[in-house]
Amino acid sequence: MTIPKHVRTMLQSIRDKFALEPLQDRMLPNDSDFTTLRPVRKASAGSIAKYWARLMSASTASEEDRVALTDDVTNPEVFNGNIENFIGTVKVPVGIIGPLRINGLHAHGDYHVPMATTEAALVASYARGAYAASKAGGISTAMLYEGVIRTPAFVLESLLDAGRFVEWIVSHVDRLEKAAEATTGYGKLISVEPMIDNNVVFLVCRYTTGDAAGQNMVTIATDALCREIAGECTVPIQNWYIEGNFSGDKKASFLGLVTGRGRKVSASVTLPAAVVERTLGTTVSDMLAYGQVANLGSHLSGQLGAQAHFANGLAAVYIATGQDAACVAESAMGITRMEARGEDLFCSVTMPNILVGSVGGGTGLPSQSAGLNILGLKGEGKAAALAEVVAATCLCGEISIVAAIAAGDFTRAHEKLARHR
Fold first, then answer.
1. CB atoms < 10 A from the CB of 195, how many?
2. 39-48, 183-192, 320-329, 392-401: lowest mean pLDDT where?
3. 161 catalytic, yes or no?
4. pLDDT confidence of 206, banded at 50, 70, 90?
5. Would residue 324 show up in a list of annotated catalytic residues for this protein?
6. Where are the transmembrane segments (predicted)?
7. Which pLDDT band holds residue 316 (cuts at 50, 70, 90)?
8. I need a labelling partner for 93 at 20 to 30 A (CA). Which of 70, 116, 127, 335 fits?
9. CATH architecture of 152-241
């Protein structure tokens, strides 16, 4: 069996990471002490000041970041690269959870995670999950794979021409790689996989994108690749399109679930029975009983994957850190597992489509930059760690919501924190 080149490259990168650092204990639970954030139901100038004092001592957040998140930005030129017809900004409330302890391949330490949302009870729920996970020694995480895809479509005269076209592509893939990578200093074309439907050929062009989410990067690179094909291919092409709607860009798809489109991350924690009872107000057996029913519901309704509410955590962190919020449509796929480990509860999420970057896009805007600085994950070399933090945060949300429904507290919590506040 031949292992595809891009899979070998990713496996080698993980192997190299383990070889460079003493990682034998890195992903094990860490029971060193931590001080959790005390929840505040009614914000005040004093409570905000206390939070920021903590964040500026515990992260790379600065006074400039505090101003960016608490005051309106008065310089409209800041937004020129991100918006057209600019008229102003929308202020979305930002809450903080943590410290969330992560023992990951790339993310390692105690993180305060900013979450932007207008949904009351959401931050409180994720904070509760983060507290339980950290009390259990933290969440182990690993980015398993990365590759953003763009799928141009080529229309040929016949099925025979489609076959000849694919043969030409295979024979000239080095030329196509060169054309695509000439457009970017960071993107690498790691595979071109043809998908034939009679006289239409989709090319699944997969890229690594450095520390950027890479949506625009791969579009520009693929355009150059397609123009090289259109200008040089000896098989007549009737038409071509930069995207054939095959990639799953901002849509949930089986392709994304199976092969991933972005950064694939797995995260897990084993919650001792005592932590479940004291911090979540339920039992391991009750959480497993509800999890069985919820998993059945996922299958019967035809969901892509099986999970409770990845979209909540994804949207809140994406908005707070300058990611493309529309990518939640494809990022919110994956698998949540909860299993008994003796008397304890093993919890994990695997998310194949986390589309985040620590550079580029909206990450350089003042408020969003502040969010990344709170995490300590702004700039080059931080995207993999950011993806692991996102997955760990989603795991916290899964733990908390399953516990709340299992204990019968879900409705009461929303009445207390939202409707009747």
1. 15
2. 39-48
3. no
4. very high
5. yes
6. none
7. very high
8. 335
9. 2-Layer Sandwich (3.30)
User: Is 124:179 a contact under the CB 8 Å cutoff?
Assistant: no
Catalytic residue, candidates 250, 277, 344, 416: 250
Domain ranges of the chain: 42-72+92-144+263-419, 152-241
pTM of the model: 0.90
Report the C-alpha dihedral over residues 86, 366, 363, 242, rounded to 10 degrees: 10
pLDDT per residue over 244-261, tens digit each? 999 999 999 999 999 888
Displacement of CA 371 from its chain's centroid (Å)? 15
Specify the higher pLDDT residue, 5 or 155.
155
Residue by residue, DSSP assigns 16-63 as HHHHHTT-TTTTS-------PPPP-SS--HHHHHHHHHHHHHHSS--H
Q: Does 119 participate in catalysis according to the annotation?
A: yes
For 103-112, 248-257, 261-270, which range has the lowest pLDDT when averaged over its residues? 248-257
The pair of three-digit structure tokens given for residue 397, joined into one six-digit string = 């949300």
Catalytic, 250? Answer yes
Contacts of 330 (CB under 8 A, 6+ apart): 248, 249, 250, 251, 252, 253, 256, 261, 262, 353, 355
pLDDT over 70 at 413, yes or no: no
Q: Which amino acid is at 68?
A: A
Pairing of strands 200-208, 153-155: antiparallel
Q: Tokens 């700039």 appear where? A: 379
Q: How far is CA 138 from CA 98, 129, 320, 344, 389, in A?
A: 11, 11, 23, 15, 12
CATH 3.40.50.2300 fits 42-72+92-144+263-419, yes or no: no
> Which of 223, 324, 344, 409 is the catalytic position?
324
In which band, very low, low, confident or very high, does the pLDDT at 288 lie, cut at 50, 70 and 90?
very high
Asked if the domains at 42-72+92-144+263-419 and 152-241 fall in one CATH topology, the answer is: no
DSSP lists the bridge partners of residue 52 as none
